[in-house]
Amino acid sequence: LLAGLVDKSIVTREERDGLSGSWYRMLETIRQYGAARLADPGQARAIRLRHRDHYRSLARGFAEEFFTPRQADWFVRLRREHGNVRTALNFCLDEPGEATAALEIAAPIWNWWFAGYLREGYRYLLRALELATEPSGTRAFALFATSNLAIHLSEFDRAAGMLAEAGELAESFGDEVLAAKVKQCQGHVLLHRGEPAAAVPVLEEARAEAERLGQP
To answer: pTM of this prediction?
Structure first.
């Protein structure tokens, strides 16, 4: 199907690098025509939801394979997909009831926001947390993810506050792995604040918990 569309000059095929394979995109005039055909609000929303689901799945894949030999591939892929990730997040933040989905996209890729998009990722996560306030495992992880970005923006008090809530939620949901991650991040807050003596025992406790839970 794609080959046929390329032959008809409806989409173009690009191969920008040797890591992430081929990339297909619509010509701008075709894209505008397609957007105009989505005049029916119900149809447009259905397409946006499919788009959201795709990038939520992509974020899960990034999180699952980040600490693997595929890490570089994922950074290249997400850089290429940046515009689509933005579009999915903006939809989720503008559409009533979709803020939790924004957390499910922005939080799992928190490591990627450091690759030149730190403030952007931070803004998305803060907006989503302001909208999706119900206690949940998703919110707990998002608070942990956002606090990592806050630390590197020197917003230590805000990071500490988010981690306190994340820790309480992790405990209430029985998520020991996240609780260990939260403790590790609390150690990082102390370290970046210039309190290494206070940070060491917290980090050692987090490491011991991670080892007990089989989290290398």
So the answer is: 0.90
**CA separation, residue 208 to residues 30, 129, 168, 187, 202 (Å):** 56, 30, 19, 13, 10
Count of beta carbons in the 10 Å neighbourhood of residue 160: 17
Residue 16: the pLDDT is: 63
Please check whether residue 139 is in contact with residue 94, taking contact to mean a CB–CB distance below 8 angstroms. Answer: no
- Which residues have a Cβ under 8 Å from the Cβ of 61 and sit 6 or more positions away? 74
Nearest to 55 by CA among 31, 87, 79, 28: 87
Number of other CB atoms surrounding residue 104 within 10 Å: 23
Contact 2, 21 (CB under 8 A): no
- Between 37 and 120, the more confident residue is 120
CA torsion sign, 44 to 26 to 65 to 125? Answer: negative
Determine the Cα–Cα distance for residues 3 and 13; give it in Å rounded to an integer. Answer: 9
With beta carbons less than 8 A apart as the criterion, state whether 189 and 202 touch. Answer: no
Question: Would you list the DSSP string of the chain?
Answer: -HHHHHHTTSEEEE---SSS--EEEE-HHHHHHHHHHT-SHHHHHHHHHHHHHHHHHHHHHHHHHTTSTTHHHHHHHHHHTHHHHHHHHHHHHHSTT-HHHHHHHHTTTHHHHTTT-HHHHHHHHHHHHHH--S--HHHHHHHHHHHHHHHHTT-HHHHHHHHHHHHHHHHHTT-HHHHHHHHHHHHHHHHHTT-HHHHHHHHHHHHHHHHHTT--
